[in-house]
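User: My instructor asked us to take a sequence, write out its structure as tokens, and then describe one feature of it. I'm not sure where to start. Here is the sequence I was given:
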Amino acid sequence: MSNIIIKTAADIEGMRVAGRLAAEVLDYITPFVKPGVTTGELDRLCHEYMTNVQGSVPAPLNYCPPGYTPYPKAICTSLNDVICHGIPGDKALKSGDALNIDVTIIKDGYHGDTSRMFFVGPPSILARRLTEITYECMWLGISKIKPGAHLGDIGHVIQQHAEKAGYSVVREFCGHGIGQVFHEEPQVLHYGRPGTLDVLQAGMIFTVEPMINAGRREIKEMPDGWTIKTKDRSLSAQWEHTVLVTETGYEILTVSPNMPAPPAFITQPAAVTA
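Assistant: Let's start with the prediction itself. The structure tokens for your sequence are:
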């Protein structure tokens, strides 16, 4: 627990702004996601919107954790069997594709991190169901967030829902603490046992971002050193919000006018304090 940073009121205000801006990039790019556009063009549009309109910085660009080469683009575009960290490029989207766009921006030193699934034209029944179940997984995990709960409670409810649907949870990648640093403690696993791992307390901020595979959970790293695919080539889906632990529950920080509505089973509003 000692490495988890409890955010101050000023930190929280900065994170609200950063979270809103990250979500607004996804609102902005939505109409451009259609057959024929390349993932590189989506990256260019997002990059220009961040820098020219928002005055924000794309956090992934040249991000270089130990053992990696610098990430070369402003966003991640993970298509079909790509689980995460897909690098935008020359690939043109086609009808039936399922695409995750993951955006992290930096504004005034604070990071906002969120991702959404997009369908290119009409989706297959499998892609639609996997995407819906993954969205429910994220929200079920978020619904467990309140002071005194455990990180294991989040992972457990996500794993139960995914596996009940016949899907699998990626183990190698997880949610993370976030603030003035892109990735900090705690690690937020999307599987686990209730009542285990760190106890949540007000002022913690972290992402919930389950990666759910239609097939098996095993992954395969591509030669570019970043792109992660399902080993069995099955579809994968992911959604992500950045969440604050409040005195009474949680607050979604990555909110925007056109963000998808929470599932009907979520009773606590994803309120933003003015």
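For the description part of your assignment, you could build on this observation: The helical segments are 9-29, 39-54, 125-143, 151-164. Try explaining in your own words what that tells you about the chain.
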